[in-house]
């Protein structure tokens, strides 16, 4: 039901193998998608994915630090130059919306599409449509920082194979019509979808965080949470050396929090450039957390299926 593609997983500055923050989120409702953070270089990473910028419907900026937002004006301008006409929603701190307005004006960038700008200080819940609700959840950082919570409800039909067999309806187009809730004709008899299927409603919730020094601030929102995407900038040892000033989480902090609240799926990201490999961060997280754990890599797509299981498909997009 949910797919998360990492366009950048480094903190502060890019490395040879990791760009700065950018996360694309899709649901199974269609080709449209949301973008969480737009670090410099994000639009170039998009060119290596299967994501179409023209199907992007929302940009959510977690906070005003450059590694999370400096790529935004360039991405907007490129979409305009490539012919985008559809409106785009931008949900960000007021400082970012003001900076964006000034940057577009200074560079004389005229977008051929409308921007629906909203400030996280003013809007904390956004009912996107009848199936998707978005929430901005406050985090703890040097600047005001927020996580994006997605609450997705999908109603589908589950076919009753025994009932289909009893009526002698073979696999084929009739199954597709019935699964879609439409009647189908078999041997001259109209079969109502309620005869051979039942309506199933599934709900999934994911939290995709920005920079955050204290995972516990998310405690009110993690009951029955299916997926947590959270920064793990340092190991606990390095976090103790740098002190509280950077205001980031360690892998141990996040893993302990996820374990304590029985969060079934955890993806760590936003790794300090000091780490050439993620082995130490992975070992520390696995010491404290026993659910499904992934350390995000640039270009990787992680899919949460209808049963709440997290998979990493072999393709990048």
Spans of at least 5 consecutive residues whose pLDDT stays below 50 are none
Question: Helical content, roughly?
Answer: 10-25%
What about the largest sheet? 8 strands, mixed
Radius of gyration: 22 Å
Shape: globular
The succession of helices and strands, N to C, reads EEEHEHHEHEEEEHHEEHEEHHEHEEE
Return the structural class.
alpha/beta
Strand order of the largest sheet: 6-5-4-3-2-1-16-17
Averaged pLDDT? 94
Which helices and strands appear, and what pairs or packs with what?
Blueprint: E1 2-8, E2 22-27, E3 33-36, H1 42-47, E4 56-60, H2 66-69, H3 72-81, E5 88-92, H4 94-106, E6 115-119, E7 125-127, E8 132-138, E9 146-159, H5 161-166, H6 173-179, E10 184-186, E11 189-191, H7 193-196, E12 197-208, E13 227-231, H8 236-242, H9 251-260, E14 265-269, H10 279-288, E15 292-295, E16 301-304, E17 310-311
Parallel strand pairs: 3-4, 4-5, 5-6, 12-13, 13-14, 14-15
Antiparallel strand pairs: 1-2, 1-16, 2-3, 7-8, 8-9, 9-12, 10-11, 16-17
Helix pairs in contact: 9-10
Structure commentary:
This protein is α/β, with parallel strands linked by helices. 24% of the residues lie in helices and 30% in strands. It has helices at residues 42-47, 66-69, 72-81, 94-106, 161-166, 173-179, 193-196, 236-242, 251-260, 279-288; strands spanning 2-8, 22-27, 33-36, 56-60, 88-92, 115-119, 125-127, 132-138, 146-159, 184-186, 189-191, 197-208, 227-231, 265-269, 292-295, 301-304, 310-311. Helix 9 runs parallel beside helix 10 (279-288). It starts with a strand and ends in a 6-residue tail after the last strand.
């Amino acid at each position: 039901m949910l797919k998360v593609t990492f366009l950048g997983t480094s903190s502060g500055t890019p490395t040879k193998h990791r760009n700065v923050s950018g996360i694309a989120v899709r649901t199974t409702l269609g080709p449209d998608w949301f973008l969480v953070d737009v670090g410099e270089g994000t639009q170039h990473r998009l060119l290596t994915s299967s994501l179409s910028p023209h199907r992007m419907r929302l940009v959510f900026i977690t906070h005003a630090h450059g590694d999370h937002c400096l790529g935004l004006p360039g991405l907007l301008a490129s979409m305009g130059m490539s012919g985008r006409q559809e409106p785009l929603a931008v949900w960000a701190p007021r400082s970012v919306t003001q900076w964006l307005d000034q940057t577009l004006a200074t560079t004389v960038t005229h977008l051929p599409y409308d921007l629906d700008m909203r400030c996280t200080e003013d809007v904390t819940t956004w009912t996107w449509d009848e199936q998707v609700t978005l929430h901005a959840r406050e985090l703890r950082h040097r600047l005001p920082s927020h996580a994006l919570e997605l609450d997705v409800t999908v109603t589908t039909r589950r076919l009753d194979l025994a009932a289909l067999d009893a009526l002698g309806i073979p696999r084929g187009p009739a199954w597709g019509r019935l699964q879609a809730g439409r009647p189908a004709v078999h041997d001259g008899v109209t079969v109502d979808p309620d005869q051979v299927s039942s309506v199933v409603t599934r709900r999934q919730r994911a939290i995709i965080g920005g920079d955050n020094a204290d995972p516990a601030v998310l405690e009110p929102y993690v009951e029955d949470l299916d997926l947590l995407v959270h920064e793990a900038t340092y190991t606990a040892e390095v976090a103790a050396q740098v002190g509280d000033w950077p205001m980031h989480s360690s892998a141990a902090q996040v893993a302990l929090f996820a374990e304590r609240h029985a969060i079934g799926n955890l993806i760590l990201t936003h790794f300090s450039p000091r780490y050439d490999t993620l082995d130490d961060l992975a070992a520390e997280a696995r010491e404290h957390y026993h659910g499904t754990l992934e350390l995000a890599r640039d270009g990787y797509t992680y899919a949460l299926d209808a049963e709440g299981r997290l998979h990493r498909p072999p393709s990048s997009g």
